[in-house]
């Protein structure tokens, strides 16, 4: 019985008995949604560099899948490798976008190198680890319940970490992130991270976690206040001394400005 199966891009491939290794044919550049969903025998997936996308749920609950080689893939869609509980090795150096739940519940995936990742959507890596030094956006619950995660390093390209991103990462001890306006949108990002003691800013400065969270939220508050002030300044132009009423649509009922004589 042949262990290898050459995949030609069909939406619902039928693997012969004994096939445990899927090799994607050179003619295929997209693995379609649901292609191998719930397959129990695949152990290894090998893609050539021309494969650019793995569709949603393509390998959903492939419980024997252990090794994935996809050097040219740029997008992994929603739940593509959901609950591949045996998956322990992924090669994906060109991967830029990881959609919601893409590697969720891949509990054997202890580490993954993603040097090109820019967007990580919600629950993308729940219960596993990842190095995301090039990520720009980390979605809600992206690393939730990654109980083995001890450290996370982000580069200066990171712009936003959304709510609950590291919820209940019990082992997380240190994280490296840049200090930017709007980086955090809530104080629950590290909820349940009882071992997290310090935050390292890109550039080397080390802060206690509570101070870091306060600093990030202060940056957000400062930006929000500046936006409010700018909007008020646009509504209230320079006027002569005294009182002047304004249209309700601009500043609300009974709104007025007071100007002191020069």
From TrEMBL:
Q: Which domain of life is it from?
A: Eukaryota
Q: What is this protein called?
A: Leucine-rich repeat domain-containing protein
Under Pfam families, the record lists: LRR_5
List membrane-spanning regions: none
**InterPro entries tied to this protein:** LRR_5 (IPR026906), LRR_dom_sf (IPR032675), Surface_bspA-like (IPR053139)
